[in-house]
Structures are given as C-alpha cells and as structure tokens.
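Appendix B. Worked example

We walk through a single record from start to finish. Start with the input: the chain for ABC transporter ATP-binding protein, Acrocarpospora macrocephala, length 593.
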Amino acid sequence: MKTVSKAGWRLLTRELAQRRRALAFLGAWSVLESLPALFSGLAVAAALDQGFLAGRPGIGLAWLGALGLAMVLQSLATRNTFPWLARIVEPIRDALVRTVVEAALRRAVDGEEGADGSVVSRLGRQAETVRNLVAALLRTFRPTLASMVLALVGLFALAPIVAAIVTPLVLLSLGLFAWLTRALAARQREMILAGERVTRVATDIFDGLRDVVAGGAVDTARETADRALRTEARARLVLARTSSLRTLIMALGGGVPVLLILLLSPWLLRPGRMTPGELVGATTYLVSTLDPALRSLTGTIASWGRQLGVLLHRIAETSAPSDVTAPRRDIRPVSYDLTVTGLTFAYGPKADPVIDDLTLRIPAGRHLAVVGPSGTGKSTLAMLLAGLATPQSGEVRLGGVPVTHVRVAEVALIPQEAYVFSGSLHENLIYLSPDTTRPELDRAVAALGMGELVKRLGGYSARLGVGGPALSAGERQHISLARVYLSPAKVIVLDEATCHLDAAAEARAEEAFAATGRTLIVIAHRISSARRADRVLLLDGTSAQLGSHDNLLIRSARYTDLVGNWDHQTTPVYPHVWWFPIVPSISPRGASR
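Next comes the structure step. The output line below is what the pipeline stores for this chain.
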C-alpha cells in the first residue's frame, strides 16, 4: 500500500514538475505575501516600547503604519498569485482524466472485473476533486505554512524565552497530528471505497433492471443497495469521530501556549527579562499568526491534504499496470457454427438466472430471431453470444473455439444505441474495414437503402459531429448497420439495432445481411423480424423454445399471444411446420424442440 501511495504522490509531483516556472513565481509572491507574519510582533512591540508607553505616540503610529503598509503589500501579492495558481492546477485534471481513461480502457481490454461503473466515479468526481484540492492547498497551505515559519522566526528575534516555551508545544502538536493523520487517511479511504461500491451496485442494478424485475430479484437488489448505503454511512461516521480528536491537538499547540504566557507574564515582566511591548508583541505572534495557522494546518488544510492523499492513492491503485492477462483473441475458427452449451447467467449470486441452462446450435449462415417479453434476457443473451459477458456456467463456442478467444473481428454486436463518432461519413462507414473500395461502399449503401441519406448529407465527405447531432436516431442506426455490413465479421448480432427504422427499412437491412451468407442473430423489435428468420428462439423468463415462426404459433401459446400483441389481430394457424435437420436435441431446461 505504501508503494501505491508513493505512486499517487509521484503522479502529482510529475505534473507539478512540468510547471517549475509557475511554481517559482508563486514562491516569490508568497514571500512578499507573508511579510506581515514576520513583522507584526516586532512592529507592535516597537510601537508600544518606543512610542505609546514612552509618550511618543507619533512613533507608535508610524510603526503601526508600517505594519499596515506590509498588509497592503500582502494584498497585492495575494492578487498576483492567482494567475500562476491557474497555470499550475488547470492542467492537472486533464492529466488525471487521461490516466484514469487509459487505465479503464486497458482493464476493459484485459477483461478485468475492475472495469465497471466505479470508473465513472473516479473519472468524474475524484479527478475533479483532486484538481480542486490541489488548488485549495496551494492557495491556503502555502501562505499558512510560510506565515507560521516566519512568525516563529520573528518570535525568536523578539522574545527568545517565549519562543523556547512555545516551540516545543507547537512541534509536539504537529507530531501528534501526523500520527493521527495515518488513522484519518485509512478512514478516508474506507469511505471512498464505500462510495465507489454504492456507484457500482447502483450501476449494476439499473443496467440490469429489466432482468432484475423479470427474474424476481427486486428484494435482493434492494437489500444489496441497502447494505452498500449503510456501509458508506458507517464509514462516514467513523471518519467524523476520528476527526474530532483534532480539537485536542489544536488546543495543545495553539491555546495552551497563550494560556502559559498569560500565567507566566508576572515572571516574564521582571526587569531584565522582557518589556511590556515585547510581551504584547509575542502574544500578537501567538494569537494573530501561530494559533490560526496551527488550526488551519491541523484542521481544514490537513483534511484537504489527507483527502488528496487518499484520492491519489486510489487513482494510482486503479491505474497501475495489471497482472491480469486477457485471453488472446487471435484464433480464426475453421467453421462458424455457433454452439451454446448449458449457458446460465444471473445478475448476482442470489438472483434467479435470466438465462438458465440454455443449449442450442446455430449453423453457419443461418438467420435466428430472438423474441420474448421485456426483461427475459434477450439483450443479455446477445452480450453472451458476442463474448462481452461472462456466464456463471456453460459456454459459447464459434467453430469449436470459445467465443472469447476468437478474433474480435469475427463477431459484431450492434446495440440499440448507435455510435457515431466525430469525422466524415466515409470514416464512420469504413471504420471496421479501412480497405473498403468505393464500389464496395456504394454497393453497401445501395443494399441497405441509404442512398437518400448519403445524398442529403452531401456525400461521403460530409462531416459528422460527436454522436451525430444532425442525424435522426434512425439515420445513426443506418450508419452503424452499414459499418458492420462492410466489416469482415462472420457472425452479426443485432440487439434491437433497427428499432428506430420503419418496417420497410428494417426488412431491407435484415435481408441485406442475410443475403451475405453470414450468421445473423436478431433481437427482434417487430414480429416481422421473426417471420423473416429461419428459426425463432422464444425466451419467456422461465424457459426457451426454438422453432420456426409457423411451428411456434402452433406449439406455444405464449408465442401466439406475443404475435397477437404485436399484430393487434387474430393470428391464423399455419399447417406447415418445418425444421432444420442439423439442429440437435436441446436440453430440457434450455430451448425445447
């Protein structure tokens, strides 16, 4: 843990080291900013002993005027520190976000469990918090520390006997606080980890909400979220209780010295020891500079510093190079039959499976439609078939090879939310196939019925913004479909990827993919997708049935109801039932024949 903590501070110091010039100017202005702390006690002592108590008020006012001038210079210096502060702290957030993003992408590629919703917490909240904390510490800790050191220097110059009494108490207070800081850092880290767990649990629940409801895991999800929230609340309470010990430490270094000086003042004012002005000047150092500085150091500033250390530790911890090696996805299968064996998946160890012991085989080049009520695991199955989710048991193989080991280019999944990146239309279309020729591109556009879209945008060179703000949802889906159509993928999974297209455009897209001879799996949005498919897999949350559209209308009341809900009309009975003979028997708990 110490190594990771040092790595966190190294991460910050590396960024600060790149701004040495700004730090040098900031330090120069800090010296001028701290002059009143050095001069205050000396000026008050001289004003009393040489001025007011000596019957020369003019000299006393002159000394106080000099102190006022030092304060004016302090204000000017403080004003000039802000531009240099901005040059130091503004780039820090960008550097931390870059570090976290690179680590998150690396972990996602490596298939680590850490690549989840907690990354959002670190990226958004923690990186911004680090930037704010660095700014606050440079703005506050820097003048406070400088003032404290210069006040002690002034105190030694003015009243060495008082300095000898005060300095050990201040150092003891700082030492005790350093000891307490370790415990506070541990409590702070526990609180941050608890907050990340709340984010992770909430993300998992909301991402799989339909499956949670369909699987009857609402109570389990509620209990899981409640445990995470209670753990975070306990962590916050423990941190608050530990932080309360700071009050005693601040009193030891700030209040006790003042009390001692007041109690010892009759002895200190004896002839040959101190003058009244020196005693008041020494008290000025204690009351106006040392005590506030110590309270700031052990209070707000220390809290910021501790929080900064914990956040840097967490960022360094999660951004460190991983020991996990991702499965090599470089195998080209000899065939493209997709085989699912005993596949089971549940959102959490106590939740009911949304996919339960599913076994089926999809021959290469076939067209399968997956239908079922909302929340029955259709999108989950799409993720499993693409190798993007890990089942609790069972496996998915492509040509006899685990789908998680085949080349990434072999399987393509298009989700409902289409992705369009900033660039030209041409770049968006050929992203997965950069060697695409112009004739190939024209044929793909024609096959998918995108000619009007290309014409409206002004040709392939048209620029698209991030997310395609000038495009409709259907147009964005069309671009995603064309991108995958041009790709070398042999297995295409459409997870409601045509839901924003009209029925005719959807039919044209599915028929275009089917005509390429590649395996096509469609998570159906309309019943027409099931009618076009070679086979239909019905998921109802408790079982799975496999057959043709006609066959399922006869065998499955659930499917008949589903078709009726889609069509809003009476469903006829189809006498002709057919099967592909190469499909083997399906396990009882999987898709039934």
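Two observations about the output. The chain is about 60% helix and 10% strand. The first strand starts at residue 338 and ends at 345.
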